[in-house]
Model the fold of this input.
Amino acid sequence: MDASEVEFLAEKETVKIIPNFSLDKIYLIGGDLGPFNPGLPVDVPVWLALNLKQRQKCRIVPPAWMDVDKLEEIRDLERKEDTFTPVPSPYYMELTKLLLNFASDNIPKADEIRTLVKDIWDTRIAKLRLSADSFISQLEAHAKLDNLTLMEINTIRAFLLDSLNCLYKLRSNQHPGSSKGQFADF
Amino acid sequence: MRDFLSGQSAASPGWDSWRSRVTRTTSRRVQRWSFLCGCQKGLYEKKRRVLSVELPKVYREGWRTVFNADPNVVDLHKMGPYYYGLGSQMLHFDSPENPEIAQTLLQTFIGRFRRNMDSSQNAYNEDTSALVERLDCLEKALFSSGQSGLNSFQSWEKGRASQLTASSLVLNYRKRKINDLQP
Done:
């Protein structure tokens, strides 16, 4: 899976906007949207919000978690805990990037928010690598990690799966009767 | 047969890493030959005892102790760029040391895993030749898959994932006029 595919999936999340036009309810295959009245907040998917924003037809309201104090709390909690803490949104990284790129004028303290989200991301990736390493070094067969987001999984997926394949082949060398082809061919 | 095999290995030097020493006992004299590993598997048979195989020194007791002590210090590229692959193939030949060899291969991989993961996932947009030169071929493949994951994430974060770039095929034709029109 590519990072842009994960971003595509993230664009389905809803965000609140304040339109400056009026439109009746629209009926799309994915669901109904609207009606749009100027000055009244309405929930729309991110892809529509960004499109309207680029056409200067709305103002985006930042999500509740996109606030400096809240993100600082989340970052400190993440640094304290050994396991992964619940994330503010399953697509926090993608939403941060999209909203801060296209709607930074609607979001107060955009640079600080960007830095805080990057810190949270770095901490979580470091924890992910640590648990991958302990998974491999202890030759576990099964691991469970809660509260991981798709983007984090995506960055490590290729490497981890290839390593686990190699590890499996090396382990099956030790038990020659248990695998079909007797010894591994690399 | 001997000339045929030695001629063949000279013509394809890439197979050198797959050779291992073979001791062929005959009733009259002992000859040491280098065979391709694939040929050996066919010739090797427990019952007839046509061939017996001598382990390359990397898989013997002395080097095994080094690997068990600290696998990170070893230059696996110098030790035979196909350390894991050849080691797995050597296990075909029923040496009494097989369990120890298999264990050492596994533990070496595990010991080096952390460093390989960190270097492949952190080295962005820099010269990685120093990191890669001491890796076995298997580890190099893992390194490149780690790098591809990192590069794809970083290019997405920079916004380069959604930028249109000209294909290298088109650039090679050198027929594009747009570069002349636009400064």
Q: What stands out?
A: Strands of chain A lie at 14-19, 26-28, 31-33, 42-45, 58-61.
